[in-house]
Amino acid sequence: MNFTYAQPRTLAELLAQKDAQTHLLAGGTDLLVDTRSGKKSVARVLDIKAIPELRGIRAVKGGLQIGACETFTHLLRSPHLQKYPALRECASVMGCHEIRNRATLGGNICNASPGSESSVVLSVHEAQINIASRRGTRRVAYDDFTTGVNRTCLEPDEVVVSIFIPSAPRALGIYRRITRTAGMDLACWNGAALVFSPNTPAKREIRFAFGTVMSTTYRPRAIEAQLSRRPLTPADMDAAYEAICAEIQPRASSLRASPDEKRRAIRNFLNELLALLTPAPTRRQPTA
Amino acid sequence: MKHDIQLTVNGIPRNLTVTADDTLLRVLREELHLTGAKKGCGEGECGACTIIMNGEAIRACLVLAVEANGADILTIEGITPPNGITRVQQAFIEADAVQCGFCTPGFVMALEAELRRNPRATAADLRNALGGHLCRCTGYEAILQVTETLATSATRPKNTKKRA
Fold this sequence. Notes:
The complex is a heterodimer of chains A (288) and B (164). Chain A has 288 residues and is an alpha+beta fold. In chain A, 31% of the residues lie in helices and 23% in strands.
């Protein structure tokens, strides 16, 4: 590692210095590992933790605004997270205690790992990413923010300021993942669902997203539409599963889990979703 | 590029000159000779370098020394009360939860941080605090016994001491 370091104190100072040669240092839990391993070559580091504009977890009109430099530990301690159960769940299993104390939501999305804990949750919530540069500000839908493995839509002079998560009152939110160990590992596969009006089939809107099965988060909107606004049967989930398997492209060379394991995880996820959305008397009983 | 930093380590103010890419772990170990925090994996996976920075347990291998400018640092060398050891250390001894000892400071600091923040931590809270800590020789049973002991003593109200 051989780089210079600076710590801007305001967003304006940061934007004045941000260019293609600079890497932003938030929690450092990815950047320092990648710099040391040689995966990233870094000339200049800007430590953005002292910038007040990148802080705060606030209830705002229509949702929750999370400063890019807020840690996963801060998210877990925020009372606002009660209303965002899938986000709370993903924040509680991300990394381990010490990693959550440093790692930030902004860093997590900018690192853009296909198995990042927050990606599937931000996708189903249709989160908006607030971006700033010397040229001005813009807001990008999360699904358009990530453009590939470790790639985002950010221009060299742009930084993520905050993440806006639209509220989902009375929605059912779940986050699931498979890992090699419970304590500390990247998700080998993950999935999230957000279901509006979960107990009223005629009004129900189902969203779900899966990680590590494509280069970016996979959100099958056409399949979601087929499952929404109607009572659900096991046959519907079978059809959805087949349609999903026809679309996804899990890499056989993945370090994490085999394509078969990921397909099985999706199958289990859909089964669980069906059980959660089906009135108790007609739930499928496990066959003895 | 050199940076001058000021920080408090185990209650002692320190002024240090470090390079931009120095890790806090290297500075603690090689400049201040506080070798309790260990370098295991060097990439945040094993927990052997865990220390407390501004009240939170962190991985000293994943923090630059310059990032610790102004911070209050506590290492395992600094947790012991005068003439004694901490509740966490006592529980490790009683459970015989140490074999080679390399990972032990990290485990102790993780539990210390959790109990300082949440004195009524449950066994589940304490186990969760150890989620990112690896031990290659004890097999974890004895260490998990420590979490049980600490949770029991943490939840027992102080004024219910049995009277003869």
